[in-house]
Amino acid sequence: MSYVDIRHPSAHYGLCEPPARRWLAGLTPASPAYPYHPNAAGMADAAAVTASSR
Fold it and tell me: The whole model's pTM is what?
């Protein structure tokens, strides 16, 4: 098992981005997600980054 750092790939998808571009849910999520946790797009993109690092 190894660690995959997604800080750089996710840098332009934070809470300051429009809701449709974010990888994270804000205080009031715009999609099904817990506040301040990855949304579905964020989880899918983080999985893709992780898979491509193999």
Answer: 0.80
